[in-house]
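Support request, please re-run this one:
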Amino acid sequence: MTSPSAYLTLPWTWDMTYSVEDQCWLITVAEFPDFVAAGDSPQEAAMNSREALVSHIMGYVTKGKELPKALGQRDYSVSVAQSPDLILVPG
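Re-run finished. Output below.
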C-alpha cells in the first residue's frame, strides 16, 4: 500500500464499548490486540481511532513486523464492520 491511510480501507474488525471505569468510549480492533483508541463521545472515539490505527500500523511496518490479515480477508465468513464511520449512534 502506498499511503498509510489506505490501510483503513481494509476490513478490520472494529468494536466500540463504553468504559464505566475510564468514563469514555473505547474502540478496539480484533486483529490488533494491543490497540485501543478512546474518546469522550462515540464520534470522537471513531475519529481518534482512525489516526491511531494508522500510527499503530506504521509502527508495525517500521519495526518490520508482519501485519495480521484482516478477518474480512480470511478464507472463512465473519460479520465485520469495516470502519468506525459505520457505527450508528442513537441521537
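The two ends are 36 Å apart (CA to CA). The beta strands are 14-19, 24-29, 32-39.
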